Amino acid sequence: MASVNSDEWRAVCHKFTSAQNLTLVESRNDPDNEPFRSKYKARELLAEIYCSLKSFEVGEEESGGGRPPTEPPVDGQREDGFGEGVGGDSPAGLRAARLAAVEYYLGVNHVDTEELSAGQEHLMNCVKLLERCSVSSENVSLFIHVRNQLGILWAGRDETETSQGFLETAESNYQRYMKEDGSPPTDMTEYFTTEENLLTHQERTKRFELAYTHTMYYLAQVYKNLGETERAATYCHSTLQRQLQLNQFSPMEWALNAATLSQYYITKGLYMEGRHCLSAATVISGLAGEAPSEAAAQESEAESERREQLRQKRAEIARCWIKYCLNLLQDSKKLLEDSIGELDTDRQEEMKMARRREEEEEEKGRKSALLFGSEDTFDSIASLEEKVWTLLKPIKLSTCVHSFLQAKEYFEMDGHVTDHVEILQDHSALFRSLAFYEEDLERRCKMHKRRVDMLEPICNDLNAQYYLMIRRQMMFELAEIYNEMMDLKLTLANRQADSETLDNHTIKKFNHLCSASAKYFQMFLDSLCSPEGKIPEHLEEEVLRPALVARFRVARLYSRLISSSPSAQLENLDKSLEHYQYVVQYCEAHPEAAATVETELELSTEMVGLLPLKINRLKAKMAVNS
Fold this sequence. Notes:
It is elongated and about 120 Å long. The chain has 22 helices and no strands. Helix content is about 70%, strand content about 0%. The longest helix has about 35 residues, at about 300-335. Among the domains are: about 5-250, Tetratricopeptide repeat domain (Serine Threonine Protein Phosphatase 5, Tetratricopeptide repeat, Alpha Horseshoe); about 530-625. The chain has helices spanning about 5-25, 35-60, 90-110, 115-130, 140-155, 160-180, 200-225, 230-245, 250-265, 270-285, 295-300, 300-335, 345-365, 380-385, 400-410, 415-435, 440-460, 470-495, 505-525, 540-560, 565-590, 600-625. The chain is mainly α.
């Protein structure tokens, strides 16, 4: 091999530096009609380096120095690279590693230029050359990089298990090396660097740890695709931790990934972890700076794009906070409700104390492994966490309200219809959950009225042709809201009245809410009909239960309408019977539907037997009075 200080070797190093510059810097400025111009030039230089290395090798063989790196591997060589073999720091091992490195860079080059088969061939050549060496500080970085690249390549072909194999081998190489050696390993670029330009130990460590961070990131994606969500979350969390520790991250991208990870924890009821991820996301997103003013954004296309990206990603983080608040309230409700779904205040105090003790113990055991941040950011994250409410902790709505405002500001109705409606539905769900904790029935009713005010205008304005499913959701929710308000008003009236007779104002309000609920349930049912208004003979699975429940609710609502006119009362009872009969007859014609509405079917069957008697008595009374 040529001396590291010889002119020949300096020429090789210069070519490598030029190839790196073409790949990493010059390629960014390639014209649209020649998108790979710089990378093709880099490929030519890498090919020349490969030829030079082979010529050095031949020269050494002719002079009798060293075993050629193309000989078969020594017996006993392990598949993962550990075991007996040519040492990584031997001349033959170094030659093989240098040739393998060029194969690696050629492989990446071909993949980048969309020549995947050629790229795979070069990367596998790299793997085969490294099989002739035991893993050492001089080649462990290359061992990991090439398997990372093969993992990415096979994942792109949807060969997830093949990808998994390469990435898990990279992981085991790292862990074994750190256990057996742990010294800062040689970076691949140093194979082609003159002695005076070698990296410091600190920079070597940073690059090596970053390569392993990439391994963990890719494994997180692999496990997610394999449906191993718990392992995927663990690897994702570790990746985010390492990115912060190495100071190698884009603030907004990191923040969005942390916020997304919080959603996994929330669905598992791990609110401490979810809260920590969201607090970290909020703090780190602040490192991206403020969005440019609207005036500045209008003057510069780059500033306009940056403003849009910052606003969008912060709005998406806000939506993740919204989900935290909603899920927290809903899970708290499950813990605190009594047998009829009302707040059990005695149990609330008992469970608050028990849960706080439990949370303290859990946090002591789990939090040390979870923490994000450096000295600069940790205090800010911890401070924000303390301001956010937790399971059974007194409710603080400032974070949640701010999140709704931020999300609505970006996801406006004009241009983001689906997102805007989903945020409104979440806002409605927030008030529904809060109403559970409100003991004042009048205030609880006002909370439900806020939900109506949010949803009703949008529901009526949405185009039924393009947003049919969304309108159905909103119509059903509005029907349920009015139904809840009706029950609350009746309970209030009964509490306040001196006798069992309701005054005219209360009756009018009750009937208005009852009719509004029936109207929206009927709108939902009408949306299932054909354009000619024909009721479907067979209900699709996704609307089967909602449709039958809507029928049952409409029947119940018509029977509850208060009327002083016997003829109007008779008309309402006839309509009620008609809807009860539909539920019973549909389930008789489609036995498989009965399991989806067991309670409603049982009550409908009972009412189909009782209502005709009530109708006949009313008719008889009307006949006598006439």
